[in-house]
Amino acid sequence: MDNAVSAERYPLWKRACPGLNDIGFIRLGMLRCISLVDSGRHFLQAAEEVHEEQCPLSTYFKSLKSPRRVRMLEAVEQQSYDIDSETLSSHGIDYLKSFPELNDYTVLAAD
Fold this sequence. Notes:
This protein is an all-alpha fold. The chain has helices at 2-7, 22-34, 40-51, 57-63, 67-90. Helix content is 56%, strand content 0%. The longest helix has 24 residues, at 67-90. It is elongated, with a radius of gyration of 17 Å.
């Protein structure tokens, strides 16, 4: 989450939205990825009950269709990738070194 907050310093995509700001949108997206839920509606119920994150149903689903938010997420993802790659490289970490058959591919995975 710190990377997302840092990325907000120089955004090309920032826009004020009273219902769901950009950092809140990213936070909800991250929560959605790690939540054990059956649907978007179930996620919003769980987010409110478990994480005390409130977002109106229509606001959440409309925000998922926003081309501006897609561009914002692409920018955040690229910055996160660059930071993670630099950090791993600076520590000499290459978890895929023992798999030379992957050298021709870009592998994107995190846990």
